[in-house]
Design goal:
The chain has 229 residues and is an alpha/beta fold. The chain has seven helices and ten strands. The strands form two sheets. Strands 6-7-8-3-9-10 form a six-stranded mixed beta sheet. It has a four-stranded antiparallel beta sheet with strand order 2-1-4-5, with helices on one face. Helix 3 crosses helix 4, helix 3 packs parallel to helix 5 and helix 5 runs parallel beside helix 6.
Length: 229
């Protein structure tokens, strides 16, 4: 792996700047993630893991610092360019699946593709391919309420990868699952990341899961540090 799908360089982020209760969350954070690599992001609650992911996914902007996704420098990009990049190059998964309850598993995965201009037949083909790879081919016509928590989260992963992004960002994706479902969901995630060749940054408190990834980094005092078990 010699190309970086995601680069965060010297990123600073302060909330309520200039006010008495100013909080510096990121203080020169630096992270490079290669295509096909899974990186666990660990650290205590409140360390800024979610903030780092939001900045990496272009949902928030840093005060200073450089961001590059898929070889494209996004530092100072316009809102329109950031929106297009999020849609095409970034996949998000959260602790709660946020699937649309009135739509089936298949529809939840095709909808993001329609928004990206993908033809209906191609979108359905991609959705069915992803569902098959996570063992949910028989659930494509089920709505979220008719699926288990682990199944819902696997559908959420498929939705995040529907538009073939360069990076996947996941914030505690197994945090509300029992150990058996957590392991099943994580194995599905690893398989998708490997097969798709994308970069994945996964914030987690689950150190057993973190240990199965290619690398662990720790967010501490606003900086990203190598983690040693």
């Amino acid at each position: 792996m010699n190309s970086f799908a995601l680069i965060l360089e010297d990123v600073y982020k302060t909330y309520s700047p200039g006010m008495a209760n100013e909080v510096g969350v990121l203080k020169g954070a630096h992270l490079e993630v290669a295509a096909g690599e899974t990186v666990a992001l660990v650290g205590p609650s409140g360390a800024g893991k979610s903030t780092l992911l939001q900045i990496a996914g272009l949902l928030d902007t840093p005060d200073t610092g450089r961001i590059a996704i898929g070889g494209n420098d996004m530092t100072g990009a316009s809102d329109r360019k950031r929106t297009i990049a999020r849609r095409r190059e970034v996949g998000f998964v959260y602790q709660f699946h946020h699937l649309l309850p009135e739509f089936t598993a298949l529809e939840n995965i095709t909808l993001p593709q329609y928004a990206n201009g993908v033809a209906r037949c191609s979108a359905k083909r991609r959705a069915r391919e992803l569902l098959d790879r996570v063992g949910l081919s028989d659930r494509e016509q089920h709505q979220p309420a008719d699926m288990s928590g682990g199944e819902q989260q696997r559908v959420a992963f498929c939705r995040a990868l529907a538009n073939k992004p360069d990076i996947l960002l996941a914030d505690e994706p197994t945090g509300n699952l029992d150990p058996a479902n957590s392991n099943q969901v994580f194995e599905a995630l690893k398989g998708l990341v490997r097969d798709e060749g994308l970069a994945a940054v996964i914030a987690t408190h689950n150190m057993d899961m973190a240990a199965k990834m290619d690398r662990i980094v720790k967010l501490e005092n606003g900086k990203v540090l190598a983690f040693e078990m």
